[in-house]
Amino acid sequence: MGSTTPTASLPSASSPSLTLTLAHPDERPKTWSLTHPMWGPALSHSEYLAREHFMTTLPLAKDGGLTHWILTDTNSSFSSETSQRPILSSCETLRKHAVAARYDPSSDRVILTEGISHGIGSVFTDPQYRGKGYAHRMMQELGKRLRTWQVTDKKDRPESPPPLTQENENEKEEQTNTTLFSVLYSDIGKSFYAKNGWKAFSSSHISFKPIKSSASSSSFTSSSSHFLPATTPFPPNLSPISYHALPPLCTLDTHHLLTQTLPTLARSNPSKTHVALLPDLDCLLWHLLREDFMTQHIFHRTPSVRGAIYNRPDKSGQRVWAVWTRSYYRGLESQSIEGNHMHILRFVMEGVEDLGDEESLSKLTGEQEEYLVDAFRAILAVAQREAAEWRVEDVQMWNPSPLVSRLIEKAGIEGGYEMVERDMDSIPSLMWYGADGIEGGSTEDVEWVANEKYGWC
What we know:
Elements: E1 18-22, H1 28-39, H2 45-55, E2 66-73, E3 89-104, E4 109-124, H3 134-146, E5 152-153, E6 155-157, H4 166-174, E7 176-177, E8 181-186, H5 191-195, E9 199-200, E10 204-208, E11 238-240, H6 246-268, E12 273-277, H7 281-299, E13 307-310, E14 320-327, E15 341-349, H8 358-362, H9 366-389, E16 394-398, H10 402-411, E17 417-421, E18 427-432, E19 446-448
Parallel strand pairs: 4-8, 12-19, 15-16
Antiparallel strand pairs: 1-2, 2-3, 3-4, 3-12, 4-6, 5-7, 8-18, 9-18, 10-16, 10-17, 11-13, 13-14, 14-15
Helix pairs in contact: 1-2, 2-7, 9-10
C-alpha cells in the first residue's frame, strides 16, 4: 500500500535530497490506504478510497483546487516515473476564496483584498517513517510553497467600489496577488504547527445533545439498511434548507461579509488585519456532498434537511438560518456512535451585525433579542432531532460569539448544553502571507473572522 523503502537507508529530515512535490495519480491511493485506519473506519477500505476519489471531482476541488503533496527523496534508487518513490510524508491542500480587510488611515478607507487561501488537510506520515522529522520538514517546505502557489487575479476595493469601467476592468486583469493565508485544523494539539508558522486560534464549541422527536417513526437495528428517518412537519415560520435554497443564501451571506462585517471590523480595530474564508456555495457543497457519500454508504440514503431557516412574520430581511453537516468516523454496526457528530457549518442572523464582541450585545433591543432567542431555539430543535435520527453523538457549534452565547443561555435548550475548549483536536491554525496595500506582515496582526466549521478541511 505505502512506500517500502528500508528504514536504515532513509535520509535525515535536513537532507537536501528531500523535496516536496506533487503526488502522481497512482500514488494517491497509496496515501489514502495508509490513512484509512485513522480517518475512515466508518467505511470499508474500498469505499474509503472511492470517497477520496469522489472528493477530487467536487466543484471546490476541480481545476486544480485540490492538490496532493508528498515529501520524497530525490536520491532514492526508485524511478519517479514509475511512481515508486518513497512517500516519507503526505498532505493535501484545498484552494478556497478568502478576503482580508484593513483600515488605511491615510486615505480614511478600508482596503479589502479578495484572494485565495489554501486549507491543509490529511497530514500523515507512514508509521514506519515516523520519529525522523519528515512531517516537520514537509510543513516547513509547504508553508513557503503555498505563499505563491496558484496565484490568482486580485481585486482591491474600498467599502463603496467605483463603477466598473472598461479602463479599470483592464487594470484589474493585469493585477496579480499571492495567496493571502493558509489554514489547517490540527488534531495533534497546538505546538507542532505553531512551531512551523501556523498560529492557533480560538478552538471552542458548544455541544448539544440529540433529542428524539415524539413524532419520530424512525427505527434503527444493527443493520443500517433498516434506518428510516422521521418526517416531522415544520411550523409555518420555520423551513428546512435543502440544496436548492443554498445559492441565494450563500450569495447574500458572502455579500454581507464583504460589504458590511469586514469593513466595520476593520474600522473598529485599525491595528488588526481581519481575514475570513468566504462561506460561498462551493465551500458548503464540499461538506454536504462529502456527507452524501458517507450517508449513502452507511444508511443507503441521504439527508433531505441540510439546515433550517426561521422567518420573522412581521418583517422581511431578518431571517435566521443555519446549515449543518453530519460526519462519521465510526461504523454503525455496533451501538456506539462516539466520534460521529453533526456540525453547524454556518449560523447567520440577517439584519443583525454580530461583530463577535460584547458591544454587539448592547445594540440589541429587547424585541430583537426575544425574536433571536425564539429563532435559535426553533432551529436548534430541528438540528437536535436530525442528530437523533442520523445517529450522531451531538450537535456542535464552533466558536459562538458573545451574542450567540447569550441566545443559547436564554433559549432553554432541551437536554442542556456543554461548552468545550478543545486543546488537541480540530485546532484552527493560520499562517498569514500578506496582501498588496495592507500593512501588518505578521500572523500576530491577524483577526480570523467567522471562524466556523465551514472552513474546516
